[in-house]
Structures are given as C-alpha cells and as structure tokens.
C-alpha cells in the first residue's frame, strides 16, 4: 500500500519551508519514525520522520524546493522489506544511449544523483565530466564536477561499473537531488562499443561534439568557446597536455577578429557599439560564484550604512618578532609563522573591547556574539571566497596559522564546504598581497565590520623628533554605522594598531 509523506505543521504563523536535505533516496528501505528529510523555515529546522516502515518510492519535492504545510513530499510503499521500485522503469532519455546501455547491461543500474549542495543552495551547473559513456569507473572515482554559486562539488561514482548514460551534459543546470547519470554496476568497460556512441553524438543534438582530444579543457575555456562559437580544434591549448585555458580562447578570438567567428548573440548587439568594436569584444557568462559575489556586495551597499576609517601601523615589532622565531616556529609546529595570525589575534583583542563590531543587526534587534568566527578573504581563480576560522578567540598562533593555511589551500582547489564559509562574525581582507596600498573594503553581510590590510612599504616617519625609515601599513576598517558609532570604530582600529606595534600587549591582554 502506498503511503503519502506530507509536510507537518511548521509552527505558528509559518506557512512554508524549504526542503534542505533528503537522507534517503528512492528505493531505500526505511523504518517507522526514521528521519527521511529535513525542512528549513525562517525560524526553525523541522525533521520529517517516516510514518511507517517500508520502501521510499518517489520523491515529489527535491532539495531546495519550497513547500507549504501539508504539501506532498514523497510516497512510501508500506511494509518492511517491500520491493523497491525498479530504477530502470523510466524511459530512456536519449535513444542512442540506450544502445550503449544494452551493450553493457550486466548488472543492476545505479543512478548517480546530485549530492546535497549546502544550505540555501538548490541548483548547480555541470562544469566538467571526467568520464564518458562506456567508460569503466571504480567506486568513489570522480565522475564530474558541479559548480554552485559558492563552491565546486565533486560527484563520485556510487559503485564500480560502466557509465551507461549521461543525463545532464556539461553546462546543464541541475537541482539538488536530481539525476546526473546511470552506472551499470559490475559491467565491463570492454562491452561498451565506442561506435554506437560516436553515432549517438551525430544523432542526438544534446550530446557535445567530440573535440578529437582526450583532454578535459578548463571549464571557463569551454564556456568561452561556446559563447564565441569556436570548436576546440581551432584553439591552441597552452595548459598541461595541451589543455585549453580561457586565455587561449581570447588569443584565438583576437587572431581571427572576424565577425563570422562570433556566434549569433542571444540578444541584439548594443546600438552604441560600432560594428568594428563589437567584432573585437567577447561575451562570457558570469559564473555562479561571480554572480553571488556581485549580488552580495551590492546588497551590502544597499542595506548597510557603510563607513570606513583609516589608520597606519608600524610593522617593525611584528617583523622583528617573526624573523627571530620563524625557524623555531616552523620546526615545532610544522607551519610557517605569517602576519595573519598577528592580525587575527589583534582583532580578537580589539573585538573584546568594542563588541559592536562583532555584532549584527537582526530585524529591530542587535545580536551580540560571545565568540569570534574570523572570516579570512581568499582570492581564487574562481573569485573571492571567505572561509571562516571558527572560535579564533580560543586559538593559539600556530593553530590559527595551520587553519588559515588549510582553508586557503582548500579554497584555491575549490574544495571548501558550505559549512566552512558560513557563520563568520568579522572578516579580514588582505589586499596587500596584490600590492594594494590603500582601499575601502566592503562589508560581508550580515557582519558589521571588516578590516582591510595593505602593502607594507618603507616610509619616512618622525620618531622621537627624528626622521627614520619604518615599514608601514595602512589599515582600513569598514563598518556598519547603523550599529557601530564612529568612536567605537576608531577605538577598535587604535587597539589593533597598538597590539601590532607592541605584540607583548597581546600576551598580557592590555
């Protein structure tokens, strides 16, 4: 007997929720009261248990979908040990791929699903497939990479077998819990014949054209080539093993500089741009990460009353201390002693005195945080991300350096999880690594403060009536003037300056 799983009562004045996570998939056996999924409202998280023992049939509301009270979430086949619905019952999406599947059908078909993408993320774009239909794959071998507006997500093979069908090609948008591909479990790759696959590429418009190279080009380059109407064989790749990079596509477009090399644009060309200029332009779709960065920064400007105050700090004491102990520090802790741990410690010290900078506005109230989750802005090839060093106020110098080093590496490799980028209470951004002498950082909402570090530069300073050369750095604190007064902002920055110019103050909490 089929039983309906519906949205429970969500609480007073709450009429809808978002499906956050499914803990079961169609065909899974479940026990009575076993948690099936989790819903999120604007107030609480609600767990949905199984009304009886049985097998989960169909998921009606996937992850990321908004549902109302009593809406249908899924169906359940009652009875412990009930037969799971056959996964091969659905019609083949691409006729020619069914030919390939017929060649490799040696075991049960296993669906490759879009994994949970994280809080508030409901969809992603398929960035790169690392295998093709007919390839043999091992369990946990990476099949493809998805790109969300925050992180890149790798999708591993759930079982060993042969990839018999790809349902979402590169560039396609998929929802959390959606189906990406099908693997024939335990099948042999030799059974899959490449000839039918080659015919499939010609018969099926959705299949990508073969490039003639067994190389995975950079996702940004693929997008640029698609926008420009260039095939890979017309672009010379400079990456490893001839991999095409985005700059290679730019060079190819500049070399051709022919209107025929450009595809018909999706919209009419801008009237104000002369034809000869339009031929030398290129249009590349913004990545989801870049779109999110743009939206959040603009939201911060539209919402917060952002004001910036400046100061400068003499880095002599920190540099001398670092030079004196860096070798011993590396030998004992296995990580280099950088400047960032000093700045984190100095900010933690200042936040204790000026808690407004560590607070946030929530409606008509102010939330004061008795902890410091320090966001550290990191530049990556995909854009700016802000991983969070949690409970930085309880960490030692070496623990801070180790955590920042770990998060920075994961950020550049695109391996950060959603949890590692959420919950920050204050942010530090170091534009000095790129040579910035002074800038005004933008708040990372809903935070109320962000410290901008800049380039260390030798400058003449007056010390005790004498002109001396000192390594100086400009500091900038941008803050939300709705919650932080000018006096508090200036006091915060002065305390950071004092702690850096005399690091002994940090040891004595002065």
TrEMBL record:
Cofactor: (R)-lipoate
Catalysed reactions, semicolon-separated: N(6)-[(R)-dihydrolipoyl]-L-lysyl-[protein] + succinyl-CoA = N(6)-[(R)-S(8)-succinyldihydrolipoyl]-L-lysyl-[protein] + CoA
Record Pfam families: 2-oxoacid_dh, Biotin_lipoyl, E3_binding
UniProt domain Lipoyl-binding: residue ranges: 2-77, 109-184
Composition bias, Basic and acidic residues: 233-251
SUPFAM superfamilies to which the protein is assigned, alphabetical: CoA-dependent acyltransferases, Peripheral subunit-binding domain of 2-oxo acid dehydrogenase complex, Single hybrid motif
Domain Peripheral subunit-binding (PSBD): 216-253
Biased amino acid composition, Low complexity: 190-212, 252-276
Assigned keywords, A-Z: Acyltransferase, Lipoyl, Transferase, Tricarboxylic acid cycle
Gene3D superfamilies reported for this sequence: 2.40.50.100, Chloramphenicol acetyltransferase-like domain, E3-binding domain
Pathway(s) where this gene product acts: Amino-acid degradation; L-lysine degradation via saccharopine pathway; glutaryl-CoA from L-lysine: step 6/6
Positions of the UniProt region annotated as Disordered: 188-283
Superkingdom as given in the UniProt entry: Bacteria
CDD domains the UniProt entry points to: lipoyl_domain
EC number: 2.3.1.61
Record family assignment: Belongs to the 2-oxoacid dehydrogenase family.
Function as written in the Swiss-Prot or TrEMBL entry: E2 component of the 2-oxoglutarate dehydrogenase (OGDH) complex which catalyzes the second step in the conversion of 2-oxoglutarate to succinyl-CoA and CO(2).
Name the UniProt record assigns to this protein: Dihydrolipoyllysine-residue succinyltransferase component of 2-oxoglutarate dehydrogenase complex
Taxonomic classification: Bacteria, Pseudomonadati, Pseudomonadota, Alphaproteobacteria, Rhodobacterales
């Amino acid at each position: 007997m089929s039983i309906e799983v519906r949205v429970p009562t969500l609480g007073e004045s709450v009429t809808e929720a978002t499906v956050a996570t499914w803990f079961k998939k169609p065909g899974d056996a479940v026990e009575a009261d076993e948690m099936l999924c989790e819903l999120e409202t604007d107030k609480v998280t609600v767990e949905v248990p199984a009304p009886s023992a049985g097998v989960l049939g169909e998921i009606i509301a996937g992850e990321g979908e908004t549902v109302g009270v009593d809406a249908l979430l899924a169906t359940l086949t009652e009875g412990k040990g009930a037969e799971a619905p056959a996964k091969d019952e659905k019609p083949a999406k691409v006729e020619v791929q069914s030919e390939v599947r017929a060649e490799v059908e040696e075991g049960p078909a296993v669906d490759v699903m879009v994994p949970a993408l994280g809080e508030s993320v409901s969809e992603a774009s398929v960035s790169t497939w690392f295998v093709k239909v007919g390839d043999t794959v091992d369990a946990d071998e990476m099949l493809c990479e998805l790109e969300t507006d925050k992180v890149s997500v790798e999708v591993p093979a759930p079982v060993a077998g042969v990839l018999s069908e790809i349902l979402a090609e590169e560039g396609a948008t998929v929802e959390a819990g959606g189906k990406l591909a099908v693997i024939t479990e335990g099948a042999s790759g030799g059974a899959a014949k490449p000839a039918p696959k080659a015919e499939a590429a010609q018969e099926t418009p959705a299949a990508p054209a073969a490039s003639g190279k067994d190389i995975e080009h950079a996702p940004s380059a693929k997008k640029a080539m698609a926008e420009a109407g260039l095939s890979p064989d017309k672009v010379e790749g400079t990456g490893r093993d001839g991999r095409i990079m985005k700059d290679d596509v730019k060079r190819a477009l500049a070399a051709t500089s022919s209107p025929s090399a450009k595809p018909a644009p999706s919209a009419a060309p801008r009237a104000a741009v002369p034809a000869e200029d339009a031929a030398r332009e290129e249009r590349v779709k913004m990545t989801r990460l870049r779109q999110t960065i743009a939206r959040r920064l603009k939201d911060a400007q539209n919402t917060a009353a952002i004001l910036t105050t400046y100061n400068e700090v003499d880095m002599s004491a920190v540099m001398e201390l670092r030079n004196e102990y860096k070798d011993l520090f590396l030998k004992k802790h296995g990580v280099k002693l950088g400047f960032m741990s000093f700045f984190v410690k100095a900010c933690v010290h200042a936040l204790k005195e000026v808690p407004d900078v560590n607070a946030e506005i929530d409606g008509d109230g102010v939330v004061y945080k008795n902890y410091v989750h320090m966001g550290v802005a990191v530049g990556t090839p995909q854009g700016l991300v802000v991983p969070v060093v949690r409970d930085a106020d309880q960490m030692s110098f070496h623990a801070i350096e180790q955590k920042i080093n770990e998060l920075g590496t994961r950020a550049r490799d695109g391996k950060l999880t959603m949890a590692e980028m959420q919950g920050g209470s204050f942010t530090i951004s170091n534009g000095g690594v790129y040579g910035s002498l002074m800038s005004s950082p933008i708040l990372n909402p809903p935070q109320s403060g962000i410290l901008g570090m800049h380039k260390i530069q030798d400058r003449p300073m007056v010390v005790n009536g004498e002109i001396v050369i000192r390594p100086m750095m400009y500091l900038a604190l941008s803050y939300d003037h709705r919650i932080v007064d000018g006096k508090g902002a200036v006091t915060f920055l002065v305390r950071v300056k004092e702690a850096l110019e005399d690091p002994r103050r940090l040891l004595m909490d002065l």
